[in-house]
Amino acid sequence: MTDTRTPTRAGVGPLLRRAAVAEAAMWRSLYVWARRRPLPLGPGGEAFGYLGVVKPILGIFIALSVVEIPIFDLIVTHVVPWRPARWIVLGLGIWGVLWMVGLYASMTIHPHVVGDHGLRVRVNSGIDIWIPWADVAALRKRHRSLPSSRAVQVEQEGDRRVLHLSVGSQTSIDVLLRRPTTFDLPTGRSAPMDELRLYADDPDGLLRSARGTPAPEADRRTTAAPGHPL
Protein backbone atom coordinates (compact mmCIF):
# COMPACT_ATOMS: atom_id res chain seq x y z
CA MET A 1 0.00 0.00 0.00
CA THR A 2 1.44 3.38 -1.00
CA ASP A 3 1.94 6.04 1.69
CA THR A 4 0.59 9.34 0.35
CA ARG A 5 1.26 11.39 3.46
CA THR A 6 4.90 12.26 2.77
CA PRO A 7 4.26 14.45 -0.33
CA THR A 8 1.60 16.31 1.63
CA ARG A 9 4.00 17.05 4.48
CA ALA A 10 6.68 18.01 1.98
CA GLY A 11 4.32 20.50 0.36
CA VAL A 12 3.28 22.10 3.66
CA GLY A 13 6.83 23.12 4.61
CA PRO A 14 7.51 25.43 1.64
CA LEU A 15 4.00 26.86 1.92
CA LEU A 16 4.53 27.77 5.58
CA ARG A 17 7.94 29.24 4.80
CA ARG A 18 6.47 31.43 2.05
CA ALA A 19 3.68 32.53 4.40
CA ALA A 20 6.24 33.45 7.09
CA VAL A 21 8.35 35.38 4.59
CA ALA A 22 5.27 37.24 3.31
CA GLU A 23 4.19 38.09 6.86
CA ALA A 24 7.64 39.44 7.77
CA ALA A 25 7.77 41.44 4.53
CA MET A 26 4.37 42.95 5.28
CA TRP A 27 5.46 44.26 8.69
CA ARG A 28 8.76 45.50 7.25
CA SER A 29 6.93 47.35 4.47
CA LEU A 30 4.54 48.89 6.97
CA TYR A 31 7.49 50.15 9.04
CA VAL A 32 9.35 51.59 6.03
CA TRP A 33 6.21 53.23 4.63
CA ALA A 34 5.34 54.78 8.01
CA ARG A 35 8.77 56.42 8.19
CA ARG A 36 8.04 58.29 4.92
CA ARG A 37 11.62 58.05 3.69
CA PRO A 38 12.36 58.72 -0.02
CA LEU A 39 12.46 55.62 -2.21
CA PRO A 40 16.05 54.47 -2.82
CA LEU A 41 16.70 54.64 -6.56
CA GLY A 42 19.87 53.90 -8.51
CA PRO A 43 21.63 56.29 -10.90
CA GLY A 44 19.13 57.68 -13.38
CA GLY A 45 16.36 55.63 -11.80
CA GLU A 46 12.71 56.64 -12.20
CA ALA A 47 9.91 54.94 -10.26
CA PHE A 48 6.57 53.91 -11.75
CA GLY A 49 3.73 52.75 -9.52
CA TYR A 50 1.06 50.15 -10.15
CA LEU A 51 -1.25 50.72 -7.18
CA GLY A 52 -3.88 52.82 -8.94
CA VAL A 53 -5.95 49.96 -10.33
CA VAL A 54 -6.44 48.32 -6.91
CA LYS A 55 -6.26 51.38 -4.64
CA PRO A 56 -10.03 51.92 -4.46
CA ILE A 57 -10.65 48.26 -3.65
CA LEU A 58 -7.99 48.24 -0.93
CA GLY A 59 -9.43 51.45 0.51
CA ILE A 60 -12.91 49.93 0.70
CA PHE A 61 -11.66 46.74 2.36
CA ILE A 62 -9.62 48.70 4.91
CA ALA A 63 -12.58 50.98 5.74
CA LEU A 64 -14.97 48.03 6.10
CA SER A 65 -12.50 46.18 8.34
CA VAL A 66 -12.14 49.20 10.61
CA VAL A 67 -15.94 49.45 10.91
CA GLU A 68 -16.24 45.71 11.61
CA ILE A 69 -13.90 45.78 14.62
CA PRO A 70 -16.28 47.52 17.09
CA ILE A 71 -19.29 45.65 15.65
CA PHE A 72 -17.74 42.22 16.21
CA ASP A 73 -16.44 43.33 19.58
CA LEU A 74 -19.98 44.26 20.64
CA ILE A 75 -21.42 40.98 19.35
CA VAL A 76 -18.80 38.76 21.00
CA THR A 77 -19.03 40.66 24.30
CA HIS A 78 -22.78 40.04 24.56
CA VAL A 79 -23.02 36.59 22.97
CA VAL A 80 -19.90 34.62 23.93
CA PRO A 81 -19.60 34.02 27.67
CA TRP A 82 -15.86 33.24 27.44
CA ARG A 83 -14.15 36.61 28.10
CA PRO A 84 -10.83 35.85 26.28
CA ALA A 85 -12.84 35.40 23.06
CA ARG A 86 -13.36 39.15 22.96
CA TRP A 87 -9.62 39.86 22.99
CA ILE A 88 -8.92 37.14 20.44
CA VAL A 89 -11.48 38.55 18.01
CA LEU A 90 -10.26 42.10 18.67
CA GLY A 91 -6.65 41.07 18.03
CA LEU A 92 -7.57 39.31 14.79
CA GLY A 93 -9.53 42.33 13.61
CA ILE A 94 -6.65 44.73 14.26
CA TRP A 95 -4.20 42.31 12.63
CA GLY A 96 -6.43 42.13 9.54
CA VAL A 97 -6.52 45.91 9.19
CA LEU A 98 -2.76 46.21 9.64
CA TRP A 99 -2.19 43.41 7.12
CA MET A 100 -4.17 45.24 4.44
CA VAL A 101 -2.47 48.54 5.22
CA GLY A 102 0.82 46.64 5.00
CA LEU A 103 -0.18 45.35 1.56
CA TYR A 104 -0.88 48.91 0.48
CA ALA A 105 2.49 49.97 1.89
CA SER A 106 4.30 47.13 0.14
CA MET A 107 2.86 48.09 -3.23
CA THR A 108 3.76 51.74 -2.60
CA ILE A 109 7.41 51.27 -1.62
CA HIS A 110 8.20 48.62 -4.25
CA PRO A 111 7.48 50.33 -7.60
CA HIS A 112 8.82 49.42 -11.01
CA VAL A 113 12.07 51.26 -11.75
CA VAL A 114 13.49 52.33 -15.10
CA GLY A 115 17.24 52.85 -14.74
CA ASP A 116 20.27 53.52 -16.88
CA HIS A 117 21.13 49.84 -17.07
CA GLY A 118 17.81 48.05 -17.07
CA LEU A 119 14.22 47.63 -15.96
CA ARG A 120 13.29 46.50 -12.45
CA VAL A 121 9.86 44.87 -12.33
CA ARG A 122 8.23 44.43 -8.94
CA VAL A 123 4.93 43.33 -7.44
CA ASN A 124 4.68 43.98 -3.71
CA SER A 125 7.75 42.68 -1.88
CA GLY A 126 7.43 39.13 -3.26
CA ILE A 127 8.49 39.71 -6.87
CA ASP A 128 11.62 41.61 -7.83
CA ILE A 129 12.90 40.98 -11.35
CA TRP A 130 15.85 42.76 -12.95
CA ILE A 131 16.05 42.84 -16.75
CA PRO A 132 19.15 44.46 -18.31
CA TRP A 133 18.50 46.54 -21.43
CA ALA A 134 20.77 44.16 -23.31
CA ASP A 135 18.08 41.47 -22.84
CA VAL A 136 15.16 43.68 -23.97
CA ALA A 137 14.17 43.64 -27.63
CA ALA A 138 11.28 46.10 -27.24
CA LEU A 139 8.74 47.59 -24.85
CA ARG A 140 5.17 47.97 -26.04
CA LYS A 141 2.08 49.48 -24.46
CA ARG A 142 -0.93 47.20 -24.55
CA HIS A 143 -3.70 46.95 -21.97
CA ARG A 144 -4.94 43.45 -21.25
CA SER A 145 -7.56 42.05 -18.86
CA LEU A 146 -6.81 38.54 -17.64
CA PRO A 147 -9.45 35.96 -16.68
CA SER A 148 -7.64 35.06 -13.45
CA SER A 149 -6.84 37.34 -10.51
CA ARG A 150 -3.53 35.58 -9.74
CA ALA A 151 -0.56 37.95 -9.76
CA VAL A 152 1.69 35.43 -11.53
CA GLN A 153 0.38 33.66 -14.62
CA VAL A 154 2.12 31.78 -17.42
CA GLU A 155 0.59 31.50 -20.87
CA GLN A 156 1.69 29.54 -23.91
CA GLU A 157 1.17 31.44 -27.16
CA GLY A 158 2.15 29.11 -29.98
CA ASP A 159 5.80 28.32 -29.46
CA ARG A 160 6.30 31.33 -27.14
CA ARG A 161 5.95 31.32 -23.37
CA VAL A 162 4.66 34.51 -21.71
CA LEU A 163 4.90 35.51 -18.04
CA HIS A 164 2.10 37.79 -16.78
CA LEU A 165 2.76 39.81 -13.62
CA SER A 166 -0.69 41.31 -13.24
CA VAL A 167 -2.23 43.79 -10.82
CA GLY A 168 -6.00 43.75 -10.54
CA SER A 169 -6.08 41.11 -13.32
CA GLN A 170 -4.51 43.62 -15.73
CA THR A 171 -1.26 44.24 -17.58
CA SER A 172 -0.35 47.33 -19.61
CA ILE A 173 3.21 46.82 -20.91
CA ASP A 174 4.77 43.98 -22.90
CA VAL A 175 8.49 43.37 -22.50
CA LEU A 176 9.77 41.40 -25.49
CA LEU A 177 12.96 39.54 -24.66
CA ARG A 178 15.86 38.89 -27.02
CA ARG A 179 16.23 35.32 -25.79
CA PRO A 180 14.32 32.91 -23.49
CA THR A 181 14.99 34.02 -19.92
CA THR A 182 14.25 32.48 -16.52
CA PHE A 183 13.08 34.55 -13.54
CA ASP A 184 13.02 34.10 -9.78
CA LEU A 185 9.41 33.87 -8.58
CA PRO A 186 7.94 33.21 -5.10
CA THR A 187 7.43 29.55 -6.05
CA GLY A 188 10.94 29.13 -7.46
CA ARG A 189 12.81 29.58 -10.72
CA SER A 190 10.54 29.90 -13.74
CA ALA A 191 10.83 28.11 -17.05
CA PRO A 192 12.48 30.13 -19.87
CA MET A 193 10.17 32.99 -20.92
CA ASP A 194 10.05 34.77 -24.25
CA GLU A 195 8.02 37.73 -23.02
CA LEU A 196 7.08 39.40 -19.74
CA ARG A 197 3.92 41.45 -19.30
CA LEU A 198 3.47 43.84 -16.38
CA TYR A 199 1.08 46.52 -15.17
CA ALA A 200 2.03 50.16 -14.61
CA ASP A 201 -0.30 53.07 -13.84
CA ASP A 202 1.59 55.27 -16.32
CA PRO A 203 2.70 53.04 -19.20
CA ASP A 204 3.31 56.04 -21.47
CA GLY A 205 5.65 57.59 -18.93
CA LEU A 206 7.50 54.33 -18.44
CA LEU A 207 7.98 53.94 -22.19
CA ARG A 208 9.21 57.54 -22.52
CA SER A 209 11.72 56.97 -19.73
CA ALA A 210 12.91 53.71 -21.27
CA ARG A 211 13.46 55.35 -24.66
CA GLY A 212 16.30 57.34 -23.14
CA THR A 213 18.34 54.19 -22.56
CA PRO A 214 20.91 53.33 -25.23
CA ALA A 215 20.83 50.01 -27.03
CA PRO A 216 23.94 47.84 -26.60
CA GLU A 217 26.63 48.69 -29.16
CA ALA A 218 26.63 45.18 -30.62
CA ASP A 219 22.88 45.28 -31.30
CA ARG A 220 22.39 48.79 -32.70
CA ARG A 221 22.81 47.69 -36.27
CA THR A 222 20.05 45.09 -36.17
CA THR A 223 17.58 46.08 -33.42
CA ALA A 224 15.79 49.13 -32.13
CA ALA A 225 16.50 50.69 -28.77
CA PRO A 226 14.31 49.54 -25.87
CA GLY A 227 10.93 51.22 -26.05
CA HIS A 228 10.78 51.37 -29.84
CA PRO A 229 9.00 48.75 -31.97
CA LEU A 230 11.34 46.47 -33.87
Q: Would you write up a description of this structure?
A:
By secondary structure, the chain is of the alpha+beta class. Helices cover 40% and strands 27% of the residues. It is built from four helices and eleven strands, in the order H-E-H-H-E-E-E-E-E-E-E-E-E-E-H. It has helices at residues 5-35, 55-79, 84-109, 203-211; strands spanning 46-48, 112-114, 118-123, 127-132, 136-145, 152-157, 160-165, 170-181, 184-185, 188-189, 193-198. A five-stranded mixed beta sheet has the order 5-8-11-7-6, with helices on one face. Helix 2 (55-79) packs antiparallel against helix 3 (84-109). The longest helix is centred in the N-terminal third of the chain and has 31 residues, at 5-35.
The helix tally amounts to: 4
- Percentage of residues in strands: 25-35%
Mean of all residue-level pLDDT scores = 86
* SSE string: HEHHEEEEEEEEEEH
- Structural category is alpha+beta
Distance between the termini: 59 Å
Sheet with most strands: strand arrangement: 5-8-11-7-6
Unreliable segments (pLDDT under 50, ≥5 consecutive)? 1-7, 214-230
Largest sheet, strands/sense/barrel = 5 strands, mixed
Rounded Rg? 22 Å
Number of distinct beta strands: 11
Portion of residues within helices = 25-40%
Shape: elongated
